[in-house]
Design a protein that fits this description.
The complex is a heterodimer of chains A (328) and B (273). With 328 residues, chain A is mainly α. Helices cover 70% and strands 0% of the residues of chain A. In chain A, helix 1 runs antiparallel to helix 10, helix 2 packs across helix 10 and helix 4 packs across helix 10. The chains are: A mainly alpha (328), B alpha/beta (273). Bound molecules: adenosine-5'-triphosphate and magnesium ion (MG).
Chain lengths: 328, 273
């Protein structure tokens, strides 16, 4: 097999795994957008907030320590205990549910029936507010996150591919685990929305608010549920990304990676988010591999957007969206 | 016809009607300067088919929306089963056994007919979120039981052949029927229908009339319906409320309102498209 092709295979594999993470972040957007028509600009910051909270809880950090110390003249920073990753994840999830309830009760509930642009603005406000709260609660320094996920090159794959191609693929264990978890999460979300009572109610709300009310569904409850699920997705994305590159502000920028995925897959399609994520992941890695050296590299920053724009021109409804036909 | 709240009456076709289920007391509803409902009172009795008629813009849909909790009146009280009802959200009203359809069909267009009708059973599905994830057996049994009710409703309304069809693909008349199916799946005590036959051809209207009568007959469901077609109203209903410009101008059996001069002037005199 030609050498270039073998390298390309490795690139595709890595692209697929990056794509799964993009898909996961995009899914958070799709869930909220479908159920409430809100484009949640804060999705990325939610991932950052979740990751910071997780680290804070694991290390036994005192939340709002700066504030407490400044107010009462104390010097507390840590409780002095460590909490195991698994329990800390559960606690963080509880925090994300609380956040969902707060957002719904104090912001979104009062904006029902407003123009989409107003709702969008509200989520921009939420994003910056949440970022501030996260800093105030846990401090703004870069933190490392280690919940016990395996990291480093996968030797088994390295060995096998070396035996076959004479070249060992570099595949990170963390990427493999992330892919498996993301795939499981997606499967669980699909099963949840197809087969449970709450999932059915969620789909109903996404489809028609009036009709949903008439069959006895509380919109408020569903929206808290949807924001909680989006919070859960943000937590998972935050764990993956945070483990990989540290918990810091740039984590909130993964939301920017989700945008082209949404342009490609459509804002309302769950399969669209998944396939879109994979296409972007593989596309940008392959492009960087094949064309990058010719143009001086760093194509990963913009390639996804160009791909999405080209796509948008020819298929504005996204991969799986219904064709939009103007009624006249 | 004078009626006591507790006593019923016997209809022209010999059906026994019971006591008051729902009573509207001096309802007034305004939208800014527009008074959609002006100090209206009437009741709905157990087992009857109660019609609300009136010219366009009379306030009929508004009245139905007040009953189902979609609109909150500025004045007046809604009594349900002998007690005043506190202000309620539409979903809470639905949980009390009141189902409805809409004048401009509100279905879940992206779902199949079966899934749409299944949503009518949501109130009956009690297994919680975690129980569903952990205790599959019970959730499955619940699903099967509710599915059986839904299949009966689907048979009853003769829409077996479109069970799996996405609602968006159905013609108007069938959509109306699916919407009725969804409301019936909730096994409501009180069924509210906003112009169930609007926009239908003669044959479809006959089918729909038959279904409404059958529902009332077989399940004893109390029905309040809005309808424009006077012929249909006269055939279907036991008692009729007539509205005009937000006011009640008549209330009684079809024969009584038909011979009421004010109704003749206001309603029948108004040409209707
Ligand atoms: N949500 C609303 N906001 C403002 N005005 C409303 C609203 N709903 C109804 N109205 C007004 O209340 C009045 C009564 O409307 P309603 O829809 O109840 O009439 P209707 O008897 O059902 O008429 P139709 O036969 O055309 O369906 C109308 O003047 C209408 O414009
Ligand atoms: Mg109306």
């Amino acid at each position: 097999m030609p050498e270039q092709l073998v390298f390309a295979m490795e690139v595709v594999l890595n692209g697929l795994m990056a794509g799964v993470l993009y898909a996961l972040v995009a899914l958070g957007f799709v869930l909220i957008y479908k159920a409430s028509g809100i484009f949640n600009y804060a999705q990325g910051v939610m991932a950052l907030f979740a990751a910071m909270t997780l680290v804070g809880i694991m290390q036994g950090q005192v939340p709002f320590a700066h504030l407490i110390n400044a107010t009462f003249g104390l010097h507390v920073t840590h409780f002095g205990w460590q909490i195991p990753g698994f329990i800390a994840i559960l606690l963080t999830m509880a925090v994300m549910v609380l956040l969902a309830w707060l957002v719904q009760t104090f912001i979104m509930r009062h904006l029902i029936g407003q123009e989409p642009i107003i709702l969008f603005m509200a989520t921009i406000g939420l994003a910056y507010f949440l970022e501030g709260v996260a800093d105030l609660m846990w401090g703004s320094e870069i933190k490392t996150l280690d919940v016990g996920l395996p990291q480093g090159i996968n030797l088994w794959i390295d060995e096998r591919t070396f035996n076959i191609f004479g070249y060992g693929f570099f595949i990170d264990n963390l990427d493999i685990v992330a892919t498996i978890i993301a795939a499981l999460l997606v499967a669980a979300l699909v099963a949840f929305s197809q087969y449970t009572k709450q999932g059915r109610a969620m789909r109903a709300v996404a489809d028609d608010h009036q009709a949903a009310l008439s069959v006895g569904i509380s919109l408020n409850f569903i929206w808290v549920l949807v924001w909680s699920v989006a919070g859960f997705v943000a937590l998972v994305a935050g764990i993956m990304w945070g483990t990989k590159s540290g918990v810091q502000f740039s984590l909130s920028l993964i939301a920017l990676k989700a945008l082209p995925v949404l342009m490609l897959g459509g804002f309302t399609s769950i399969p669209g988010a998944i396939v879109g994520g994979l296409i972007i992941g593989v596309g940008e890695k392959l492009f960087e591999f094949a064309i990058g050296p010719l143009v001086g590299g760093a194509t990963e920053n913009w390639f996804a957007y160009v791909l999405a724009l080209i796509f948008l021109v020819f298929r504005p409804q996204g991969l799986f969206g219904e064709k939009i036909i103007e009624r006249v | 016809m004078m009626l006591d709240a507790s006593e019923g009456y016997v209809t022209a076709d010999g059906r026994q009607i019971g006591g008051v289920v729902m009573e509207m007391k001096n309802i007034t509803l305004r939208f800014g300067g527009v008074v959609a409902i002006k100090d209206i009172s009437f009741d709905i009795r157990e087992g009857e088919i109660r019609a609300i008629i009136g010219p366009n813009g009379a306030g009929k849909s508004s009245m139905l929306n007040v009953i189902s909790g979609f609109y909150v009146p500025q004045e007046g009280e809604v009594w349900y089963r002998g007690a005043p009802r506190p202000p309620m959200k539409p979903y809470e009203v639905a949980n009390q056994g009141i189902a409805r359809t809409f004048q401009n069909i509100a279905l879940f267009e992206g779902m199949s007919v079966l899934d749409n009708v299944m949503t009518g059973r949501l109130n009956y599905m009690k297994t919680g979120l975690f129980a569903q994830a952990l205790w599959m057996g019970r959730a499955e049994r619940e699903e099967t039981e509710n599915r059986a009710v839904v299949e009966r409703v689907i048979d009853f309304l003769e829409i077996q052949h479109i069970r799996k069809t996405p609602v968006a693909r159905l013609p108007y008349g069938l959509k109306k029927r699916v919407e009725l199916a969804r409301a019936l799946a909730a096994e409501p005590k009180l069924l509210l229908l906003d112009e169930p036959m609007a926009g239908m051809n003669v044959e479809e209207k006959e089918d729909m009339s038959r279904f409404i009568l059958d529902v009332n007959d077989e399940f004893g469901t109390t029905i309040a319906l809005i309808e424009h077609d006077m012929g249909v109203v006269m055939d279907l209903s036991d008692r009729v409320v007539v509205m005009d410009y937000g006011k009640k101008i008549g209330d009684g059996t079809p024969d009584e309102v038909r011979n009421n001069q004010e109704v003749i002037d206001a309603y029948l005199g108004v040409a209707h498209d």
